[in-house]
Amino acid sequence: MKTTTITQFASTNERGKFKSVSTKITPLSHHEILIKILACGVCHTDCMFMGRDGDVLGHEPVGEIVEKGSSVERLSVGDIVGTSFLKSACLDCRECNSGQDIMCKHRIMFPEGNMNGFAEHQVCDSRFAYKLPDGMEPKYAGPLFCAGVTVFNALYTSKISPTGRVAVIGIGGLGHLALQFCRAWGVHCTAISRSFSKKEEALSFGAHDFLASKDFTPEYIEKLDKYDIIINTVSGDLDWDLYLSLLNRNGTFYLIGVPDSSIEIKNTGALLTDQKAIRGSLVGGRYVMELMLVFAQRHHIKPKIEEYPLDLEGLHAAIERCEKGQARYRAVLVAKQ
Where would you find the membrane-spanning parts of this chain (predicted)? Predict the structure, then answer.
């Protein structure tokens, strides 16, 4: 490949506004591939990075390989692949060698490199691209590369058995996939949302039961069966003591949504006497990503999406829905065929 030009949709200084830019790319290195993007999910994390002129966002792209470097053997031209938050790692440290490349000290993460999914093409390291299982549609696969693997990673690292109990806080882009993964995992799964407006959909996604957080009081929670893990997908502040009281002894609260401010816990004694834990959960590395795709295909897990064209007009509409929390439940940009 000679030096060529691709079209990308870059952020402007005006929040929520993007522009079309032409970017020159040099011949592919040994491990690189050129992908023609077929679909790209729009994530709330994209909204967090908006407003810096020239930044190309989008970390849930799926596309067809149209060219590959000389050392790419695992993938072929014509394969449909996706990429994710983790763009590169050293592949030679303790974390990488133990399957924890997502924790590599030399990792490169979205949006570094400016070669991301809001574009017509993407160049990426083939070692961090993942072939879709046969039959998985690109538009449904996109959100799995961030939202899907994030909730899957929490379940996988928790080592919870099918006899366990899990609560999912927040029924949005992450939460509705968490419910599907939980149901397939075999655990008892409870959906928690502020009101009962999402109850029926939560049950349809796989929840066994539903709780409205507006009803939460210490007395109300005292009467409930407790949970082995809680997966919090809400980006905002909670009554942390109240929610920690929902955990069984030895239970873990997985923090996926980002709080608006610091976490304040008054009843710290419960962390000690009941051995409760608060743990962060990042998107999975390469090994977990491969497992998640197989698991999702096996159990027919897919996001509920809103489709928008992969162009500036579609991006503006999708990003607005996402930032306002109105997407039901994941906005996806889809290229014209």
Answer: none
Burial of 124 (0-12, 13-18, 19+ CB in 10 A): buried
Same fold: 4-146+284-334 with 148-280: no
> Which residue is associated with the tokens 């402007």?
12
| Whole-number Å distance between alpha carbons of 83 and 79 | 13
Instruction: Say if CB 9 and CB 124 are below 8 A apart.
Output: no
Tokens standing for residue 181? 């993964």
Long-range contacts of 102-111 (CB under 8 A, 24+ apart): 102/282, 102/283, 102/284, 102/285, 102/288, 103/285, 109/85, 110/45, 110/57, 110/59, 110/84, 110/85, 111/49, 111/55, 111/56, 111/57, 111/59
**Confidence grade of residue 1 (pLDDT, cut at 50, 70, 90):** low
The pTM of the full predicted model, rounded to 2 decimals, is 0.96
CATH topology (fold) of 148-280: Rossmann fold (3.40.50)
Q: What is the pLDDT of residues 287-303, one digit of tens each?
A: 999 999 999 999 999 99
The amino acid present at 103, given as its one-letter code, is: M
Q: Which CATH architecture has domain 4-146+284-334?
A: Alpha-Beta Complex (3.90)
Q: How far is CA 6 from the centre of its chain?
A: 26
In the chain, where are the structural domains located? 4-146+284-334, 148-280
Identity of residue 189:
C
